Amino acid sequence: MYGDRSAQQAIHGCASDAIQKILATKRTAELADPANPRDPANAFFRFEGTLLRMAFHDAGTWDCDSGRGGANGSLRFPEEVDQPANAGMRDGVLALVEEWEALKAAGCGVTFADLIQIAGAEACFFTGLPRFTVPIGRRDATGPDLSTTHALPGTSTNIEDLKRIFRANGYSLKVTMNLHDLVALSGAHSIGVSRTHPKLGPMDGTPDNFDNVYYRELVKDGCMKNVNGNNFCSDSALLDHVDTAALVVSYRLSNGLWYRDFTNSYIKMGKMGVNGEGTMGPL
Fold this sequence. Notes:
Pfam families: peroxidase. By secondary structure, the protein is mainly α. It has helices at residues 5-31, 47-59, 78-81, 90-105, 112-126, 159-169, 179-186, 213-221, 242-253, 255-269; strands spanning 193-194, 201-202, 224-225, 231-232. It is built from 10 helices and 4 strands; from the N terminus they run αααααααββαββαα. The strands form 2 sheets. A two-stranded antiparallel ribbon has the order 1-2. A two-stranded antiparallel ribbon has the order 3-4. The longest helix has 27 residues, at 5-31.
């Protein structure tokens, strides 16, 4: 839908540059706070993690049975972003919508669906993951995906429910998600914060770095705990299945292996809903 390859590269480039500027601005503002740099009370604390979570939650609504949802930019609608599963993302969505409007005014015709997936990838690059290119060509939804937000896993989801969720929303005409993807993508919590409790806190010991410390601490401690002692036990469920546990150990031992697998799985995730109702054109 963007024309030839050079046009696609230009659109991807202007969108990527805009996201990097936002991330640098937010980081500078947080570090300039003399009271408490990177304060969890800051609405944009770990803004990188917020952008990445938005990419997951926009794509993760895909439901193969109904053919609805997917990476279609529907997260921009207030009715969807205000769903309980999307708690804590409203400020991030508003900031990205504002940037999207500015990009369109400047002649960069990226869709919001593509911008969300590009933003998630750029957040990973900003914090240490080698840069990769997100395929573009998604069409924007014309309304919220309220009927499919149930497809998003919760903080205490067990391994059987995680497997069921991936079976339900991990298949479309062009992509098949599997348990390998589940474990690789779970490492996104490397730059996240727990927002399920009154106090916020990083999910691992190096929240500014996209690295495999998440897997090291998961193997060491079992149920993940942030700096405030809050549990995020859906992560520990990865240790309850022989195949997923083996992958956790592999990623604990090799940052490079995880980087490779995360990149491949992220690209697959961003294709969920291809040819689904109102979702995408060909990528």
